[in-house]
Every structure is written in C-alpha cells, then in structure tokens.
Amino acid sequence: MKRIVIALALVLCAAQPALADKVAAPIPIGIAVAQTSNVALFGQEQVNGAKLAEERLNAAGGVNGTKIALVFQDTAGDEAGAVNAFQNLLNRDKVVAIIGPTLSQQAFAANPIADRAKTPVVGPSNTAKGIPEIGEFVGRISAPMTQVAPNSLKQAMKIKPDLKRVAVLYAQNDAFSSSETTTFQDAIKELGLETVTVQKFQTTDTDFTTQVTAVLGANADLVVISGLAADSGNLVKQLRQLGYKGLIVGGNGLNSPNMFPVCGALCNDVLVAQAYSPGAVDKNPVNKDFAAAFEAAYKKGPAQFSAQAYAAVQVVVEALAKIEKETGKKIADFELADLRAALNKSLRTGTYLTPMGEISMAPSGEVQQKDFYVSKIVMNPDGKTGAFVLVSE
Ligand code: 1QQ
C-alpha cells in the first residue's frame, strides 16, 4: 500500500509542470557590493549611489509606472562573500539582474554563477581586463583601466616635462591591481619613460618600508600605485613620511574620498585618472542634476563609485523600459527566465545618458564611454576630508 501511495505521488508530481517564476513587483534588482570589510570603503559609496538612483527613478515612475526595489546583499571583501551574495540574489530573491560585485577579484569568482543562471550582471566598478569575457550575461558600465589609467601618466608628464624614472608598485593578490599595473607598465614604455623598479605588495599589508626603501634607492621621480584603498593610502603616507618628494599617480583604488583619512594631509597632489567628475556638468545636465541631488541627500559631492552605481541602476531601469516598449508587454507579465534573457539583450542596445556622459554597452558587454578625467587630491585643513580637483579633461 505504502509503495502504491509513493508511486502515485511520483506520478502526480511528474504530471505537474514546474511552476515558472514570474517577475515580482516591485521589480527586484540585486545590488551585490561590499558593505563590510576594507572593501566597504568603495562599497559604501556604491550603496549611496544605488539608493539615490532607486529613490529618484521610482519618483519618476520607475519602469513605466512599475516601481523597482533594490535588494542589497553584502559581498564583504572576498570571493566567498560575493559568491554567497550572488546565490542569494539569484535563487532566493529572484532578481532580474545583479549590479556588482565591487572588485574584479570578486567578479571572476561570482559572475560565472550568474552567467550559468542566465541572469545579467552589470559591473559597476570592475575595471580589470577580461571582465566582459567571463560570459554572455556579463557586462559592465565601469570603463576598463586600459582606457582610463594612461591619462594620469600623460598628466604627470605635463606637470613635470623632464620626468623619466618611474617606480611601479602593485598589489599582487588582487586581480584588478595586477591588471592595472600591466596597463601602466605598457603605457610607461610607450610614453618613453623608464621603469626603474617594480615592487609588489599585498592588499592586507600595512607596513611598506621595504617598497619605499626600494623606491628611494631607485631614485624615482614618479611613483605609480595599483592597489585597493587602505593599502594604497598607507603606501602614499609612508612614501611621504620616509622622504619621497616626487610625483605620485594612483590607480582606481585611490579613486575614493573614503581613502583620504588613511593618508590624511599626505594624500595631497596624488594624481588619479577618473571615469567620472562631479565638475563635468556643462555638457551634461544629467550629471548636474545627479550631483545636486547627491549633495542634498548626503551633504557631500558624489565621487566616481557613487556615480557609477547610480548609472548602473539607471541603465537597468532604462533597459527594462525598452523591453516594455518593444514588446508591448508589462515586465510583471514576463516569466523570470524570459525577462532575464530579454534584459541581457536590451542592456546592449541603444545609449544611456548617465552622470558619466553618454555610454552604451557593446554586444560583448564592454562599456563604451567617451569622456575621462584626471584629478589631483586636495586635502582640507582637517586632514580627513578633501576633494578630487579636476586638472585635465
Ligand atoms: C576593480 C577596481 C576596484 C578598485 C574597484 C573598487 O577597479 O576591482 O576592478
């Protein structure tokens, strides 16, 4: 009897088609960034940018009248945290897309999971080589450092035309840093400069005496740093404390005001190439609007990671709206799997006028962006706050 019941139950189960997930309303969009750990120095800015986008885009009607709901999952600073956040967003929260993770190092581990689940990923801050190549469902709105970073070297040469001897330092345990340093090292060669020493460190390091001693010994007149925020900030600080007087170019890891308290007044004059500038408003009313709203909400100006997170949400919302326009069907009437596939295509069509100017996503998932900037850090007398002051466009 028992056997018959089990057999019957099996037959009934098999006859019942699996219930396909529908898209929930409000439309869930995953935000997988670092809200804890050292990487939260970047992640907090991303949360601010994303939240502002949610508020403003919903106030403007969301997706043709349907609101969006951001679902935040903390990735912390490592690969395991990112993998876990992605799994929760995909399987439990059933998001239509994931914006994240914060680091390229995390993207290489977590993005394949979303790719296998055929769910679009929009990288808000992944700038290493090879990110879009992870898979068909992986894209980014953060310009790769291959396009951004060399601008800062050119600016350093304008400031000091007799510049020659370059010391290169990078975090060897981080995918972005290892990628960015190859871009810098290639550009150094192309620009006719000489690499006099290459020094490695770890993102967890706090003592940089060995590296600084090598820089001083090599008689460098430019130091180029590829690391994350806390490590790079400490490196800048110790370079100055131990007597280095030359120019410093920082990579994307120094692109956050949350790094300013680490090197304090010694952050002054560090040059950083940027994919966003709050000052670039003349040609871009969207940025003017965004920068004013950000200032009103957070009592400080937006920096690059906030602007990029805002843009990532904006791009997803506009791509969703395009789907409704083209199909005549409301997002909430789609099955989740169909919508995720349609969204991946929609993201890659048309252009988006964002705080970073006009951008688009190539079929490969790579961002196309026109305008980049170089700024220098100018610290306030309090030694904790400061600004990226535009030095070139
Ligand atoms: C990357 C980066 C980091 C500096 C972003 C926070 O550019 O990991 O790709």
UniProtKB/TrEMBL annotation:
<keyword id="KW-0732">Signal</keyword>
<feature type="domain" description="Leucine-binding protein">
    <location>
        <begin position="26"/>
        <end position="378"/>
    </location>
</feature>
<feature type="signal peptide">
    <location>
        <begin position="1"/>
        <end position="20"/>
    </location>
</feature>
<keyword id="KW-0029">Amino-acid transport</keyword>
<dbReference type="GO" id="GO:0006865">
    <property type="term" value="P:amino acid transport"/>
</dbReference>
<dbReference type="Pfam" id="PF13458">
    <property type="entry name" value="Peripla_BP_6"/>
</dbReference>
<comment type="similarity">
    <text>Belongs to the leucine-binding protein family.</text>
</comment>
<keyword id="KW-0813">Transport</keyword>
<dbReference type="InterPro" id="IPR000709">
    <property type="entry name" value="Leu_Ile_Val-bd"/>
</dbReference>
<dbReference type="InterPro" id="IPR028082">
    <property type="entry name" value="Peripla_BP_I"/>
</dbReference>
<protein>
    <submittedName>
        <fullName>ABC transporter substrate binding protein</fullName>
    </submittedName>
</protein>
<dbReference type="InterPro" id="IPR051010">
    <property type="entry name" value="BCAA_transport"/>
</dbReference>
<dbReference type="InterPro" id="IPR028081">
    <property type="entry name" value="Leu-bd"/>
</dbReference>
